[in-house]
Specification:
Elements (H helix, E strand, L loop, with lengths): L6 H9 L5 E2 L10 H8 L20 H8 L10 E4 L2 H12 L5 E6 L4 H8 L3 E6 L10 H7 L4 E7 L11 H13 L3 E5 L24 E5 L1 H4 L7 E4 L2 H11 L8 H12 L1 H25 L4 E2 L8 E2 L2 E2 L5 H12 L1 E2 L1 E2 L9 E4 L4 H17 L2
Parallel strand pairs: 1-12, 3-4, 3-5, 5-6, 6-7
Antiparallel strand pairs: 2-8, 7-8, 9-11, 10-14, 13-14
Length: 371
């Protein structure tokens, strides 16, 4: 397999270690081990009794049972725990795709969702999400992209980088299209624990039909990127095949990550409530910032997740726009070029409120100088 460089990772490697105001990441602010245990009401000394041994590479039974509690119709045998959602995606795509298959996915998108299929010899078609349509997929355009070799349709909900979110009736229509052409439907749902519209949890596509494939994670929504815990959901027969592929990658999961993930999912409400409150406060701050600079900036307010994808009106590339903010204000945003979309940038809304407000004040100063 020959695959292109991961564009955004080059930016992260270059700037993440040095900037004061990192608004380029895509998750909620990182927690310490101590903070996690305190939020869950547990004693951190429990880590002392964990053996660093081989564990069930599917994920422990207790963890998979805990994950099922976040869905309506998922059983433990329908879950394969992985070392991050990225691994879950990589395993599934390699298992089901063949050269010449057509893959349809929303655009802009997380780069691995289309570069891995391309590296496997697939024909990738983009269902373009338009700013003027609220970054929501157009069902008619999706139907037009279907061909006789369509093997997979990928939906990311809530969506990265735009923060858009589909309603259950829209999800049902997409499933009907996939089923009618015999294609797999993959629902990448790593943000589903962060609805910003007042609902408790984003509806999962896998609860519509047990043939739908889903991915999930606690890392970005809970502020635990370093745990590297994700999962793949699907029919047990397919997961058995995915397990074979996984055995060549990571045939053991970290017992520490498994233990903490189980504990966190069982106590998810208290952590998620704090995180959603933090994001909503930042949304309010950013909305005010946009209104002050509406001659330069515009946006579609996010409905879920921890990111948004504003549009800017300056005669400058997105790379240069973000480089100037880093050089002049020590603020790190992710340029639209990382999603092959010029004139846009991604903002992380999952930053501590004080830090986020300070970063916006610095962006304020930069934009005033452009007028």
């Amino acid at each position: 397999m020959h695959i292109k460089p991961f564009i955004m990772e080059n930016w992260f490697k270059k700037y993440r270690p040095f900037v004061k105001y990192n608004l380029a990441d895509s998750g909620v602010r990182d927690l310490t081990i101590k903070q996690i245990f305190e939020l869950c009401g547990k004693d951190v000394a429990a880590l002392n009794d964990i053996k660093l041994e081989y564990k069930d590479s599917r994920g422990s039974e207790e963890l998979r049972k805990a994950i099922t509690q976040t869905y309506i119709s998922v059983n433990p045998e329908n879950i394969l725990v992985t070392t991050s959602t990225s691994e879950a995606l990589f395993i599934f795509l390699n298992e089901v795709l063949s050269p010449g298959d057509t893959v349809i996915l929303e655009f802009p998108a997380f780069q691995s969702l289309y570069e891995v299929p391309r590296a496997l010899g697939c024909n990738v078609k983009f269902l373009k999400l338009k700013y003027e349509e609220g970054y929501l997929p157009n069902i008619s355009r999706l139907k037009e992209l279907i061909d006789t070799r369509t093997k997979l349709i990928v939906i990311n909900n809530p969506h990265n980088p735009t923060g858009s979110m589909l309603r259950s009736e829209e999800l049902s229509k997409i499933w009907e299209i996939a089923e009618s052409c015999g294609a797999y439907l993959l629902a990448d749902e790593h943000y589903r624990f962060l609805p910003l519209d007042g609902t408790e949890t984003v509806s999962s596509m896998v609860d519509l039909n047990n043939k739908i494939i889903g991915t999930g994670s606690i890392t970005k929504c809970f502020g635990m990127i370093g745990l590297r815990m994700g999962w793949l959901i699907g029919p047990s027969k397919l997961l058995q095949q995915c397990q074979i592929f996984k055995d060549y990658l990571t045939h053991v999961l970290s017992p520490i990550s498994d233990f903490i993930a189980t504990m966190v999912i069982k106590n998810r409400e208290v952590i998620l409530k704090k995180n959603i409150q933090m994001i909503k406060k930042n949304v309010t701050v950013f909305e005010s910032f946009i209104s002050r600079h509406n001659d330069i900036l515009s946006w579609v307010p996010p409905k879920g997740g921890a990111v948004c994808f504003p549009k800017y009106n300056l005669d400058i590339s997105s790379d240069r726009f973000c480089e100037c903010l880093i050089d002049q204000e020590d603020v790190f945003l992710l340029p639209g070029s990382c999603f092959e979309k010029e004139g846009f940038f991604r903002v992380c809304l999952g930053v501590e409120n004080k830090l986020f407000t300070e970063a916006i004040e610095r962006m304020d100063k930069y934009l005033r100088r452009q007028k």
